[in-house]
Queue: 3 jobs
Job 1
Amino acid sequence: MPTFETATTIPSPTLSKEVALSTPLQLEDAMGKRNKKAIGKKVGRRVGSSESHDSPLLVDIDPLPHGVLIRPQIRSLKKEIHRLKKKLRKIEDDLQESRKNASKKTIKVTHLKNLHRKDSSNFSIQKDSFEKEMAKMKRSASNKSWKLTSKIRSLEIDLMVMKKKFQLLEETSSWSTERIRYD
């Protein structure tokens, strides 16, 4: 069987519409329109802070109008506080997760920067060694081509000498064969 909470109401002809309003914001709007003349009281209250224990904090408090139910307002405020606490916990969890992700991403970025530095230095080292090797190969090719060119020249000279000798031999052999014929 459901239990009902009893609430104390103070009847007031001016607040009959306001009692039907359910949310604190609706009540506040209705009260603000009806009673602009309500003057808040200044209440001195000490605030426990580490800096100064003697400084009072002044708070504006509006008096509750007659006929307003206090328990439903307290209940709705507690629900609102509970909802805001849940939202705050969720936001804190998201913030913590974002911090973890940010630290992971920072570690990854620094790792990639270090790799880039290593790769660029390795690349420049490899490039230098490759250029040195290319220079050696060019010199070697140049030396080899020079050697081959000189060898070709010497072979051409040898060929010319051989042709001359052969020509001389032919001339002498043809003269000797002609002489033999006539003799």
Job 2
Amino acid sequence: MTISFTYTPFMDGRRADLHARFADLFLKPPPKEEPRARRGFFSSCVGVLPSILLPSVLRGKRLGREGRRKYSMSNETMKAWVIDKFGGPEVYRVAELPIPTPGEGEVLVKVQGSSFNPADWKVREGHFGSREFPLVQLFDVSGVVASTGAGVTEFGEGDAVYGVTYTGAAAEYAVVKADHLGPRPTLMDPADAAVVPVAALTAYQALFDHGQVTSGQKVLIHAGAGGVGSFAIQLAKWAGAFVYATGSARNHHLMRELGADECIDYHSAKFEEVAKDVDMVLHSIGQDQVSASLQAPRRAA
């Protein structure tokens, strides 16, 4: 059995065309593939970010600090949600900051929505290393294009977009690299779109880029009612997999609505005894359950 511990970076240097990815997933039937014999696969996405962020994290760069050094500022100001030190939710405050100016290959987005991921509270508490304050947080961004920098041809003023930003989306405006944005589906509310990028892309890559899940396989998804887990259930079912999902009993109704075939209450059952010989485990619940999770993937024949 091959065991792979991975940060599950999604983009791997490819263009972040979110709309095309997910429109293709949900509006078209999945490709017809015969189930194939393969070794069990374990994918850990604990504390992950899509790869458009990971290179900077792994090299120890300061995400927010890099943004402030790089981008010029206009004379106009915006309101932003910032922190001046590491800590709990009490460290947040509203500040007035200059509106950043997009550089070459970048887009200034008028923010209409963002969302809070585990990576965000980990940054706030200082788990990702030092930062320069005041720091604007939040990676997910949804909004409309306010202006574009030199060389940007795929987006224009007023376009609805969503994606991931280095410089913090908890503000009225955020600078985003053009290749980290995608056109937002017209029927998607800006607030709904804001929860997609980090969580959904992590789930997508864990399942398909790393796990290579296909129809007929069995997948165990931890924390099925969470951000990554809730997307992973839907994506795995779209691919035709049989899905086990762990979660509290109160969340079983939600997980079944999302498509889970069998829900496991981790308070009263051992998931490794219920979900036996699965083809893949998507692990997103911390280190405590790693050993048990490694018992679930089936062994190679």
Job 3
Amino acid sequence: MDDFCRQETIEMQKKTTKTQIDLEEPRLTRRLVMKIAGASTVVGGLNFATRVAKAQTLEDLCELAQLDLVVVLDQSGSMNIGSPTRMQQAKAGATALVNALNVSTDGVNVGVLTFGGEPGSSDIPLFQSLTDDASTALAAINSIPDSPSGDIFTNMEAGVQAGREELTGVDYSNDIVASGSHRSDVPRIMVLLGDGAPNRDNNDNEDLSTFPSLGGNDPSEEANAAKTEDGIEVYTIGVGLNSLGQDLMLEMASESKTSHAFPNVDVEQIEATFEEIAADICPTEVEIDIKPGSYPNAINCNTNREGVIPVAILTTADFEAETVDPSSLRFGSPSTVIGGGGATLVHGSGHTEDVDYDGDVDFVGHFPVKDAGFTDSDTEGVLVGLTKSGESIAGLDSVKIVGKCQ
């Protein structure tokens, strides 16, 4: 651990211990309650209570996501069934998904494409490459016909392959050319919606009556390659599928048969399903403790002051702090971090320490005050980043601004 960081943490803990009973009675009460209850974790006293009763309960956690996402929609003729049509509902769902995320240069980049019912890998009626502009993505979704015409066949393989190419930048066919807009340092997600079992494929095969032994394997194999070779997280939504089609959706999705597969969705629930996916792909909430061992987390945001703010990421039953990628962390006011800014680590890459005395190893990093973007009115600080495996994380804790921000 950097000597400066270690000394700062030690002095802060000494000061807190000395004044704990006089100034932090609620914290002591919290410790006693947990002790009586047989709890093994003590997490920050008043900070814990504040986190539980957050004024801003990370409802806009989705705005902190950093990822590349491609929406893949079935545009075969059967999507014109119903009133409103299946396609209208799918468009509403895709729109809700885009609106739930922070589409921006440093946030979420979105691509949109459709697949039809013709054989061959060029059967992609719409291809909107990854973009950091929400209006561009929404315009692409809106341009899809509400009532697709043509055959009621389904070449799902073409859609999965095109989505995979755009997310990786690798051309697996000669017909679809990836834009090269992908990013290699963020999670990759594909959301696929289909309303029919695949009966066309990329080998110009038609009338695949032996599904799933022939055509059914093509999108499944493509999706499995996307997951295992490219690290793409795949969500699937099935509408009006028979049992074989539902099984395929389960097979194609990540974490098969759990939160990533929606194999039998009613038309009226398509939009709600996209919203559920939006909530699921948002960053994982982690517990953070700003200025661990102290309360009320006072921050002098005068930019002329060359200070640092210690922030701990706590190990909990659901998260191991040691899995954090220190180089990915950004910390600051909600508006600053959501806008793509924030302070990054100083004094190396942080250190590990049991800041809440629960026997688990936590992560502690120090961030420059002047880069955190706090204003006089801020009451919370936000930390975002990635784990070493690429999972997005975000945490929030209370702050008290002292001095005058400039």
